[in-house]
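User: Reviewer 2 asked us to show a designed sequence for the structure in our supplementary figure. I'm pasting the structure tokens here. Could you produce the per-position amino acids so we can include them in the response letter?
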């Protein structure tokens, strides 16, 4: 079993370059399968979710080359439409194969996807969308069977703003006959990224990034080259870590606009922030104001930064309240933070966080962002060695974490 060992007490200092976004990449890879020839994806992050996706594509018969930060996907030899193996269950985003293969072949069979299980991750809105496009959807022995004689465009109103359902429906609709309109669509930058790739492949999509997306179906999609947007969640995690350790870090190669909800909250706490063209410099202060944070759909505060933010709020004077309106019970990091001395109470869907002196301890990452919150806690404690197990979750989403933190002056290493 691998562990991360963190010896805290040092302010993070220096520059960190952010890789491509996981939550874009895991949607762009299946999107590439819809082309009739090679798609080149640049700025690909090196993460466990990405290598798992590469194996899934190879099982499907696609040829994939992944080196440095570039993935080249040749889908011309794609054979199978049946995906029920363990790899599919490793990651939530394998569900984008439903939309991609339904669009391409009119049919898909896929095992129910996995991912971080901080709470149930329903897919009813994805299915509602596929059905509205004319597909028949059946759940048989843990696999979803989706089939359509002909996908036909339709107007689809999402009951909840869903990042995943918006992308999945957009994928299938790109090859449907006629026009699809998705109302109450999610607006995240990753959705714009997928629409940008699809349009470069020949799709006709307008409105991605707004609440209404209009997709005119096309008969073929071709190969192209696309560069993945920077990872706003990795960037946000390093910004929070810089503030928590009272450091001075330039988070580089990002789109500052994507960070606005976090930047506003850090400023409200009293953190010094300098926005540059492609970077944000975060300068920590000796003390911070307590604040309230509400995790909401984009452009609100990202649910994925809720757990790292919990750790930072233990360093603010007074009492802060953090509420997650996207995932009501995404709080598995809290018992572990309490083990490290955090004074946090859970009240319904909110964490009530008091200023706390964190101490080193042996803790467990139960999901990806919970893991990030524990790493930041370990960096923040003044003395002692924090041991974090569940490293496999952290590896799902943080490219080169140990080397990046070492570069910023932290004492962090892996132990088997
Ligand atoms: C809107 C939002 O912030 N989405 C986040 C969500 O995306 P992800 O795509 O995983 O989740 P969704 O956006 O689909 O879910 C948002 C909400 O809708 C509900 N829901 C979703 C689909 C569905 O068919 N039925 C349903 O009820 C979910 O339970 C949740 O409460 O987690 C990702 C990983 O943590 C984040 O990167 C995304 O930014
Ligand atoms: C939970 C996450 O990923 P996934 O939805 O892929 O499980 C995340 O990115 O924070």
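Assistant: Here is a per-position design you can include in the supplement:
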């Amino acid at each position: 079993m691998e562990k991360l060992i963190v010896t805290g007490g040092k302010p993070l200092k220096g520059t960190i370059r952010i890789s491509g976004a996981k939550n874009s990449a895991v949607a762009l890879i299946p999107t590439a399968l819809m082309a009739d020839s090679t798609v080149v994806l640049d700025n690909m992050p090196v993460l466990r979710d990405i290598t798992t996706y590469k194996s899934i594509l190879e099982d499907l018969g696609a040829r994939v080359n992944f080196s440095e930060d570039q993935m080249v996907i040749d889908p011309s030899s794609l054979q199978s439409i049946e995906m029920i193996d363990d790899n599919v269950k490793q990651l939530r985003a394998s569900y984008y194969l439903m939309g991609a293969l339904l669009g391409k072949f009119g049919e898909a069979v896929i095992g129910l996807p996995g991912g971080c299980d901080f709470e149930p991750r329903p897919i009813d809105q994805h299915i509602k969308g596929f059905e509205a496009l004319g597909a028949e959807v059946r759940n048989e022995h843990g696999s979803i069977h989706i089939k359509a004689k002909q996908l036909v465009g339709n107007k689809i109103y999402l009951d909840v703003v869903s990042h995943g359902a918006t992308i999945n429906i957009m994928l299938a609709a790109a090859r449907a006959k006629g026009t699809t309109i998705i109302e109450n669509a999610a607006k995240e930058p990753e959705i714009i990224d997928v629409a940008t790739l699809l349009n470069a492949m020949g799709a006709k999509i307008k409105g991605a990034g707004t609440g209404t997306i209009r997709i005119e179906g096309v008969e073929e999609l071709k190969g192209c080259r696309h560069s993945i947007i920077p990872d706003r969640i990795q960037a946000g995690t390093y910004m929070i870590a810089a503030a928590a350790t009272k450091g001075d870090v330039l988070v580089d190669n990002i789109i500052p606009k994507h960070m606005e909800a976090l930047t506003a909250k850090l400023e409200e706490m009293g953190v010094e922030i300098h926005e540059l063209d492609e970077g944000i410099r975060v300068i920590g202060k000796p003390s911070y104001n307590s604040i309230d944070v509400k995790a909401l759909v984009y452009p609100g505060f990202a649910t994925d930064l809720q757990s790292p933010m919990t750790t930072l709020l233990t360093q603010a004077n007074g009492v802060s309240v953090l509420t997650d309106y996207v995932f009501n019970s995404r709080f598995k990091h809290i018992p572990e933070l309490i083990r490290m001395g955090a004074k946090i109470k859970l009240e319904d869907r909110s964490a009530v966080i008091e200023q706390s002196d964190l101490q080193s301890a042996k803790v467990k990452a139960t999901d990806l962002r919970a893991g990030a919150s524990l790493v930041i806690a370990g960096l923040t404690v003044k003395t002692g060695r924090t041991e974090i197990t569940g490293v496999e979750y952290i590896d799902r989403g943080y490219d080169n974490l140990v080397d990046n933190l070492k570069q910023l002056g932290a004492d962090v290493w892996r132990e088997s």
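For the response letter, you might also mention the following. The chain has a mean pLDDT of 96. The chain has two domains: 3-19+230-415, 22-227.
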